Amino acid sequence: MKIIQSAKEIQQFAKNNKKDGKTIGFVPTMGYLHEGHLALAKQARKENDLVIMSIFVNPLQFGPNEDFDSYPRDVERDQELAKKVGVDLLFIPSLEEMYPKEATIQLTVTKRVQALCGRQRVGHFDGVATVLTKLFHLTLPDRAYFGMKDAQQVAVIEGFVSDMNFPLDIVGVETIREQDGLAKSSRNVYLNEQERREAPHLYGALLKGKEIIQSGERHANHIISVMTDYITTNTSSKIDYVEVLSYPELESIELLHGKIILAVASKFSSARLIDNIILTV
C-alpha cells in the first residue's frame, strides 16, 4: 500500500493510472477507521482496479462548539486496517496541504440541508462540499463510496455532484451495525457503559416505525410520536430530532408515499448519535 501526503503527487498518481485505463474507487474518511469505513473500502475493491482512501479531519465541517480538537485520531492503526482490506493508496494530507491559503470562493449548499443534522449544523455541508470538491479533483475517481448511516450527507453529495457535472458515481453503502443493532460510529467510544446499553434503542425506534408503516400506518406525525416515545422510554439521551421525510429531497410529508427516510438523532453525555432507515412506501 502506497502512502501519499502531497496533493500534487496524488493527482499525478491518479492521472497516470487513468491514462492506463484503470478505474479508481475513492473512499473519503476522517480516519479512526471502523467496520463501516472498511465496508466502503471492500465494496470499492470489488468494483474498481484501484482503491484510494483519504484520511483528513476537515475543520470546515465542524461548528465552533463541536469536537474537532477531540475527534479521535490513530493514523498508524488506520494504515494497518486500510492495508488489510486492500486499499492501494492512502492519502493523508496535512491541514496546510489541503488549505494552503485563504479561499477566494465559498461553496454553499442550498437544498437538502434544512432538515435533520443540517438544520442545527449551519455551514456543515458547505464544508463537506468544499473538501469533497478538492478531493474529487485530486483523486479523479470513477466511483466514490459513502455510508448510508449519514443518509443526509449522501443526498447532499448526490445533489452537488449532479449539479456540478462531476464525472463520477456516488455509491451509498448500507449501514454497518454491531450485533445489537447500534450503527458503527467513531463516536461510539465516547459512550459510557450504561449509554452503550441504551444506544441500540435508537435503531429499535426506527424498527418500530418501520413495523407500523408495514402494518398500514401512513400518517407521519403518528409514526414520529411512536418513535419518540420509544426513545424516551428506553434511553436517558436527549432527543435532537425524530423525523419522517421524503428522500432524497428531505422534505416534510404528511402522508407517506414513495421513497422516505425515518431518521433519529439523540445526545448522550459525550456523544451525539444518528441513525436512519430508508423505505419505499
From TrEMBL:
Enzyme class: ligase
Binding-site positions, (R)-pantoate: 61, 153
Catalytic site positions: 37 (proton donor)
SUPFAM superfamilies according to UniProt: Nucleotidylyl transferase (SSF52374)
Keyword ATP-binding: yes
EC number: 6.3.2.1
Binding annotation for ATP: 30-37, 147-150, 176, 184-187
Broad class of the protein's primary localization: cytoplasm
Associated pathway: Cofactor biosynthesis; (R)-pantothenate biosynthesis; (R)-pantothenate from (R)-pantoate and beta-alanine: step 1/1
Residues reported to bind beta-alanine: 61
GO process terms (BP): pantothenate biosynthetic process
Subcellular location, record wording: Cytoplasm
Gene Ontology CC: one annotated term: cytosol
Superkingdom assignment: Bacteria
Substrates-to-products reaction catalysed: (R)-pantoate + beta-alanine + ATP = (R)-pantothenate + AMP + diphosphate + H(+)
InterPro entries named in the record: Cyt_trans-like, Pantoate_ligase, Pantoate_ligase_C, Rossmann-like_a/b/a_fold
GO molecular function, one term: ATP binding
Subunit structure: Homodimer.
Role of this protein: Catalyzes the condensation of pantoate with beta-alanine in an ATP-dependent reaction via a pantoyl-adenylate intermediate.
NCBIfam families per record: cyt_tran_rel, panC
Additional free-text comment from the UniProt record: The reaction proceeds by a bi uni uni bi ping pong mechanism.
Family as reported in the entry's similarity comment: Belongs to the pantothenate synthetase family.
Protein name: Pantothenate synthetase
Organism expressing this protein natively: Oikeobacillus pervagus
Gene for this chain: panC
